Every structure is written in structure tokens, then in C-alpha cells.
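Dissemination and training. As part of the outreach component of the grant, students in the summer workshop were shown how a complex can be specified as a set of sequence lines and then modelled as a single object. The example used during the hands-on session is reproduced here so that future cohorts can follow it. Participants entered these lines:
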Amino acid sequence: MSSEPFAGLARAMVRRVLRSTGARVACAVLALFVIAAIAAPLVAPYDPTVHPDPVLLKNLPPSAAHPFGTDPFSRDVLSRVIFGARVSLGVAAASVLIAVSLGTALGAVAGLAGGWVDAVCMRAVDAVLSVPRLLLLIALVASTGPLPVGGIILLLGLTGWPATSRIVRAEVRALRERDFVVAARAMGVARHRILSRHLLPAVAPQVLVAATVAFASVIPLEAGLSFLGLGVRPPTPSWGSIILDGADRPAQLWWLVLFPGMAIVGVVFAVNAIGERLREAVDPRQEASR
Amino acid sequence: MRRLLLSRAAQAAVVIALVATLAFVLIHVAPGDPFSASLDDPSVTADIRATQRAQWGYDRPLPQQYVRWIANLARLELGWSHTHARPVKEVLARRVPNTLLLMATALGLGLVAGVALGTWQAARQGSRSERASGALALLALSAPEFLVALGALGLFAVRWRLLPVSGMVDPVLHDGLSLAGRAADVLRHLLLPAGTLALLTTAAVSRFHRSAMLAVLPEEFVRTARAKGVTEVAVLVRHALRNALGPVITIAGLMLPALFGGAVFVEKIFGWPGMGLTMVNAVGGRDYPLVLASVLVGSVLVALGGAVAEVLAAVADPRVRGAA
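and obtained this result:
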């Protein structure tokens, strides 16, 4: 009985996204990147890690044979950007999944428990949120040494949960006093069942919005770490590490900055645009100011 | 007001304690100790290493080490930087002011430009130029700092040669210049890095300020002012802006962590000799005490800045001020 209004909200969210032209374009852009990432071996014209001719084929500007040019190791930049989509989008998606799951769990526990558990959890969240995440990651990577991709995912996931947990906690606290939850509690429904049947479906839309925000912030973060040489290690292409290859001469090797840069901005902009429409569907007050 | 001050001070203290503890844990999770990385550095004698080990108590049990670690931090004894061959305290003392100059300039520029843009957008609500500027702001927010910085460097410094490529002062001319000339020299070097950070600050602030203004404009005191015949510009600036100022300061405080992260990239790319550049280079040189100290000092500065912003926001809000 309680899931009915939320199914309605889910439909409203989809409608809201599809109604706006900007958001439809954003969905198409995002779909394009995801397809490119999945079908990378079929779409990419060259092998992204092989150095075919480090003398004759290095640092070539864009041409018909290499639409995005080649890098200092003579690798095809277009192929690296396409395979980079795999790494960048994959790392972002996996780490957001970890962060949002952790955040939802902690936020729900804090919100349901109330009292000192809640107070301690939220002070911890405030504390973590006020530490620059990049500094935290730099300190972590510096102490662990170079990490495989799985390690990067884990670090990004473990440092990304506080924002989600704060949102979920606020929602759960508000829902706790609503009639359908009070009624369920009065009927003697077990706590974990109230959580899974009544509260989690109700916070799902908010969690989805939080996930778009988390995704839009983790893409630049991974790119930035890889750009600093602390993220995905060569020769694996990530959008950030491709840019690193051209970073010492950005004016001469502009294609090494511009094309992967456009990929980053394109994905983040698309996710932000979709996230904004979703937020409007979840919180109609936002729409009033639009 | 006093309650707010106390609770913010307590929260800042929690952050500092948390970061200090985390740094301690990291030291002990990492293989070896912070001084083993300097083994291959000839400028670090066995003597220095022994003194450091004794000072930090690496031969003691963990709880004692922890107490010593906190006590050392409280006295600002942050260890020895082997890449700079001097105490970490001295390295950071020279770099922190440069980062503060960069961030304060960027924040100042970004707040003024963001408030102006947001106010204009609120006044032109729904027009085509308003929507276009909103989309541009979102686009700017979607671009990572290092990308904007590389673009600015490539175009303004390398291709068009309008501004210096790197550093904080001209390495040859600076010392021979007059005081005004030296200030102008720093300013020229500051323009691109601070401008990069200010662009992103402007975009973020304008988005918040626009909605804050839109929330204030329907209020009765605004309508009263209009009814009295106050001009539209005066309504926007004197009445609405003053009420929206609190949220702007709050946002500035909340943006500090991201701004500091952005400064790391900007300093790295423009060779600005601040904490961010020091930290990134220290990671490369495996100068572990310097990395951790930079992270610690950076987090503490950001936490203090956030606390100050929250108190200022309360002071700027007439409702809170009246209640104090």
C-alpha cells in the first residue's frame, strides 16, 4: 500500500526528464558514451596501449588517419579516449555504487536510531565533509603507494558517502513520523521490515538524485587524481591520464587536452542536467524558482 | 550567538582531532615509517634520522606514540622534510601565505562576480539571456579545475603571450623592481591561477545567489519598498541583496574544501609556490612527513575558514542578529 505514491513519483521523474529538450539531449549524450565504453574494442580504430612508431607517429595533430591526433608515445588519441570511457565511467559508476550504498545504510541507521547514535553519526559526517576530499585521497594514495583500478574505486567509494548519508538521514527522520510508518509500527511490524518495505522505497528518489551529484563529482576527481599521476596508472587510458600526457605542453599538444577534456565536460554536464530535472521532480519547490 | 560560536568551535576541534588521528593511522598503515623513504637521500644523515625517530617515538608502544604525535602537532612540530632539507614547519610557513593569497583573491573575485551575475539573473528571470547564462554557469561547473587551468595556460600564456606561464614572481627582474613594481609583478602572475579558480567560484555562487534572490523578491518588505516608489535597482541592491547576503557567505564557507582542492591543481599547473604544489611534489619525492603535514594544515585551515564563514553568515542575517 505504501509503495503506490512512490511509483507515481518514479513515473513523474521519468516524465520530467523526457519532457525537457535539454535533458533528452543529455540522455542521448550519456547513452553515446556508455555505448562507446561497452563497445570500445569494436569502435576504436587502434589499440590504445601499443606504441606503433614512437619516432614517426608521435605527437601528430588531428588528421584523417588519427581524428584526435597521436600522443607522445605515438598512440591514437581517439582510441585512448574511447577506451578511457571504459575506465573513467566504470570507476565512477562502481565507486558511486559503493558510496551511495554506504551513505544510504548509515543515513537510514542514524535517522531511525535517533538520540546519541544519530548525533555521533552526523557530527562525523560534518567532520568528513569539511576535509577537502582531494587532500584525503592524496594522503591515502601517498601512504598506500600506486594502486590498481580496484583500489582507486574503493578509495573513491569510501570517501564519497557523507553527502548521501546526510540526505537519507533527513528523509528518514521526516518519514518516521508519517502516518503509514506510524501505523506500521503500531501494527507491530519489525524495525528492519519497516526500513526495507516502507522507508527505503520512499527515500529511493532522493538517493537517485544524490547518486547523480556523486557521479558528477567523482568523474572530475578520478580524472584529477590520474592527471596528478596518483590515479589510474599508465598505460591504462583514463581521461585524466591522457591529459597528463599533454600537460607539459598544452598549447602545442592541444588535442591531448581538448578531446579527453570535452569527454569529461560532456559527461559531467549531461549528468548535472539530468540531475537537475530529477531534483525538480522530487522537490517541487525547486520548480517554483525555475 | 555564543551558542553558535561554541558549537562551531567544537565542530572545528572534532575535525582537527579526526584528521590528526587519520594521519596517525595512515603513518602506521604505510610500510616502514616516515623516515625510511628518506634512506636514499644523502642529505639526510643517520643522525637526523635517529633524532627524528626518537622525537616521534617510533620505538614506543602505539598509544604512547599517539599521545606524542598529538603533542608534537600541538607544538607545530611537524617533522623533517628530506626533499627540502629543513623542518616541515619552515617549508609550510613559506608556502601557506601564497596559497591564502591565491584563494582569497579567487574567492573575493568569485563572490563579487557571482553575486552580480546572480542578482542580474534574478532580475531578468525567464529571459533568453538569463537562461543562456545559467547554462554557461552549469557548463563552467562541469569543467574540472585542471582543464580550465590548462586551457587558460595554453591560450593566454603560451599562445598569446599575454601573461606569465609559471611561478609567482619574475625570476630575473623581480628583485630589481620598486615596491609597486614588485606588487604589479606578483599581480601579473596571480591573474591566471586566481582567475581560473574565480571562474568556477563565480559559477557556483551565481547559481545559489540567483535562487536566494528569487526567494527574497516575493517577500513583503520588497513589495513595500516597490510600493513606496523605490527604484528597481535600489530594491535589488539595498533590500533584496542585503537579505540574500547570509546565504552567500554560508555558500562561500561550504565551498572552501572544493576551492582548496582546486587550488592544488591550479598551483601545480601554474607553478604557484603554495601548499598544493608543495604537497603534490612531496608525493612525487616520497617526502611523507611533508605530505601529511600539508594535508593536516590544509584541512585545519579549511575547517577554521568554514567556522568563520558560518559565524559571519549569522552576523550578516538580521533575524539571527536580533535574536542574539
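Chain A touches chain B through 46 residues (CB under 8 Å). Students were then asked to discuss how this feature might be tested experimentally.
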